[in-house]
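pasting for ref
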Amino acid sequence: RPGVHVDLPVSERELAEVVDPDIQLLRECIEKALIQAAKDPSQVDLVTRTGGSSRIRAFTRMLQDLFGPDRVVERHLFNTVVTGFASEARREWGTGV
């Protein structure tokens, strides 16, 4: 909002404590998806992190713990999702839109 300025230092440890419940929920969702797909985390070849929030170290650590650090990679953080949306729009409506 115009005129609103917040300057509040937060340590990595404090951030990890705040987001931990959400990280645990995400892990549960991932584990449920793996069960539904009848897959073990070891059967996943590559986990791609995209979006700014995927840079939160607690999130990255959770993924690395679940899948292994060698299979978790970071891709274009801020344009991968948009590229996916564009590809889906092209598939849905064609290139003449």
